[in-house]
Amino acid sequence: MKDWKIEIDYRSPYDVQTETWEHGFIWHGVDEAMIELGDAHWYGGGGLVHQQWPLEKIAMYAAPFITSDNGATGLLGIIHPFWWNSKGGGVLVEGDDLEVGFNAPLHGEPPKHSFTNMAPLDMRPQLAAGIETTQQLRIKGKNLTLRFFECDDARQVVESYWKLLNMAPPPPDYVIEKPLWTTWAHFKNHISHDKVLGFARQMVEHGFPCSILGIDAKWQDEFGNTSFDLQKFPNPAQSIATFHEMGLHVTLWCVPFFMESSAHFKPALELGYVIKNPDGTPYIGTWWEGKAAFLDVTNPDAMRWHLDNLEKLAKEVNLDGFKFDAGEAMFYDIPDTLRHHTGAPNFATHHYIENAAQRFAWSDSRSGWFSQGQPMVFRQWDKSTRWGFDNGLASVITQSMTLNLLGYPYSYPDMIGGNQYGDDVPTAELLIRWTQAVAPMPIIQFSIAPWEHGEECAKICARYAQLHGDLAGLNKALAHQQVPIVRPIWWLTPQDETALVCDDEYLIGEELLVAPVMREGARQRDIYLPAGTWASYWDESEQHPGGQWLRDYPAPLDILPLFVRVDK
Asked: What's this model's pTM, rounded to 2 decimal places?
């Protein structure tokens, strides 16, 4: 073994069986395992509200490991039970009903279940600094299979893990070539044909490219309906046609919930397609818009009926696809006897995504459980309009690297500038730095209008939206190779201690190094160059050998420090 220090629960009714495989060993029949973190750096596990890098910076209470909308311990919608470390060790858990703790606090109790904006984001999960923790990765379940990796370094672990994945095909090229736009952060629920058309015209007038225009909530007359609100969109088919004439693809937002006043509420109940209480009445759950009946996404007939309704609408108005929201298992974390498919809540996420992904040329979601093989694009959880790791700009890079290495290379970092929830409003500087930080990534999305934050903001953001298109060739090539696209800089130097803890730079493939400015007011930053010879993207004559710091590197507001590897 690779210096593993592991305790397992031998009280299991199963006999723990061991076998070897190409890159390590496998244990079958495990109910609980405690893996010492040691002095290595750790990565993986999926999306967190407070996305630190490396992972040992957090202290996450042991709790159900389910896809969540701001879960009680900080879990988000795309999670995966695979963790690895800088010394070449890793563990992939095969089993659905899991409880996981990572470096859990030794004192106190895990926070209660909550969702959306009802919990302090900067405390989910806690930071490990200054508190006593277990120094363990704890995994608990029933009859689990633990696949251990024993490799030379972190990169080898990830490459070995990727050989086990059945990867989805890449998204359409146009999605990589031009940014997505959505109405959500700009308008929230207050949309109409006139507002969306004006929005689209302004983006064109200010020089912003667009591949998909996403019409978010609330285009329908009631949540759960598949009919437009004709007061807002008097002629939906003509609205879509107008956007198509502008060269835009158009998608609609949808959720698997039915308000009682929805036209689909009664038919879904009569058909047995919503979750019911034991007495036959509809189970009424809570989501961010209030109370609703929940589609039983674990019922194949219910999903087929729901998707048929969406497909009918799509054909009527010539729609290009859907944004499937709210697929997190935490909404279905109820007695399993109420669901069609009994078992772990994460099956709800998997089934929701698996069915939705097959029906439309374009679909995206913010939830995923073993969903790497689904032909769908995944987005990070709703970002806050902040600078820090508390679900703000800093977490965009760390979460992008995490999801990419877990097998979601076509994931994208939600909306530039965040969602403007509550009193959070971006400054022009935050919008500019956020645009720069994500511009080299394969898929990006705007919603907050840069032109409403001044002419300088609009011009700089439009310039980097164009840069995104300039780099599309590299991103499309990587997408078709089906490899991680957004990578940590330790990918090139997996034994380099400085690279192993770098949380504010990233690579695109092995060719491009991105070092965005992540601090408010900064006009310079320190940049660490990994192995290789690097030239400035903006001035090829400026070249630097790798393995060194560039201290106080100039980065005025209109400049993204960007380097091309020239020795490959």
From this structure: 0.96
